[in-house]
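Expect chain and fold; thus:
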Amino acid sequence: MGDCWSPLVVRDISLGIDTFEDLVRDPGVSRALLKNRLDRLVDGDVLERVEYATRPQRFRYVLTTSGRELVTVPLALTQWGDRQHAPDGPPIVFRHHCGEVLEVFVTCRTCSGAVHPEGVSVQPGPGGRAAPGTLVIAERLAGMA
């Protein structure tokens, strides 16, 4: 998910844009790049290929359990982009199943409070170690002990 195309692919698939041809057309990505991203998302257990035609062989892509759990991230990024870079308003509007316009935000499961950077602290977890991606945090936390 660390590139610019994968979140768009996951978002589109969650919206029912699930064939290779439609995925090429919607975000305007090259065929080779899209194939690479789809292969990586399948290998990463975010997507699954489901055959829908045999002659010629064609697949549609569906979200795995892991992929469905991930969908809120590109939805939130889309809404952030709409707020920051769409002066005429969002190009698409998401509706929740309750019928209301969806606004994605993160809340704490325990207190239901909105999550903001100022209200989050960090502590070592059970799998914590000094490694790429956690090295500086691990060093800082060790210095606090």
The chain has a mean pLDDT of 90. The CA atoms of residues 21 and 143 lie 53 Å apart. Helices lie at 6-14, 20-25, 31-43, 65-70, 72-85, 135-144. Strands lie at 47-54, 57-63.
